[in-house]
Automatic annotation (TrEMBL):
<keyword id="KW-0812">Transmembrane</keyword>
<feature type="transmembrane region" description="Helical">
    <location>
        <begin position="20"/>
        <end position="38"/>
    </location>
</feature>
<protein>
    <recommendedName>
        <fullName>POTRA domain-containing protein</fullName>
    </recommendedName>
</protein>
<keyword id="KW-1133">Transmembrane helix</keyword>
<keyword id="KW-0472">Membrane</keyword>
Length: 255
């Protein structure tokens, strides 16, 4: 049998290469179309908000639409919402395939105004910075917001305290926790001095020179329990007090 001519060999190799390239190109096209379909099918179209005040008050939701639900990270959703809406906390982010997420929110309410070097930061009970203001004296700020002003021994810089961030200082968190307990007991606090971890002074409103003394070095639940027990007892007996000091093993009361 005569050997195959060089021209035939060339065309034969060319056809093989063309067939291989055609298969690769076809597979690439199929993969591309499949990815295009998947991206379109799982594109986020619906953002449902449940909880306080609803979707109309949340900023940043539009930036989420069009994202691929397969790759959307719930934690990134939390960061976006928290960055633009410091007065809300995200309780849960649920993905509902193929094109929907449900965001459960709760609106944070300020419980105290932390005095900064040139202003105030309104804080939630968990220490989240909800709002910042620059105007007013301590008395004016307390009256305007109907919130107790908190004087912290480590005064923070206005420009380094960012909206949406959490302040996790031990003495400050203890103060906010006990402040919520005072609200529960209907004790109105005018202003608070955090002089040290062992000297947290709550000055009562409408009770001249009446104070509550706490310590961040003592169990907070125990102090809350002791305070509740004493206040309820005084209400039953019709007694008033000048100082309740809960920093030590046994409470000290001055009338």
């Amino acid at each position: 049998m005569p050997p195959e001519s060089s021209s035939k060999q060339f065309w034969r190799k060319l056809r093989l290469k063309f067939s291989s390239y055609s298969v690769i190109l076809l597979l690439s096209l199929i993969v591309f179309l499949l990815l295009l379909y998947v991206n379109h099918y799982f594109r986020l179209r619906v953002v449902q908000v449940s909880g306080d005040n609803g979707e109309q008050n949340l900023i940043g939701l539009e930036s989420l639409k069009g994202s691929n639900l397969l790759w959307l990270n719930p934690e990134s959703v939390r960061k976006i919402i928290n960055q633009h809406n410091p007065d809300y906390t995200i309780r849960d982010v649920s993905k509902i395939y193929p094109d929907k997420i449900v965001i459960k929110i709760i609106r944070e309410q300020p419980v105290g105004a932390l005095k900064l070097n040139i202003g105030y930061a309104e804080l939630s009970s968990a220490g989240k910075v909800i709002k910042k203001t620059k105007t007013g004296s301590d008395a004016e700020e307390s009256a305007r917001l109907n919130l107790p002003v908190i004087n912290f021994y480590q005064q923070l810089d206005y420009y380094q305290v960012n909206l949406g961030n959490y302040l996790d200082y031990e003495g400050l968190l203890m103060t906010l926790y006990l402040l919520m307990k005072c609200r529960e007991l209907e004790l109105k606090i005018n202003y608070i001095d955090i002089n040290s971890l062992n000297m947290i002074v709550f000055n009562l409103k409408d009770r001249e020179e009446s104070r509550l003394l706490f310590s961040a070095e003592k169990d907070r639940d125990l102090q809350a329990y002791e305070l509740e027990t004493l206040i309820r007892q005084f209400k039953i007996e019709g007694q008033d007090f000048k100082v309740i000091d809960l920093r030590y093993n046994k409470p000290i009361v001055k009338f």
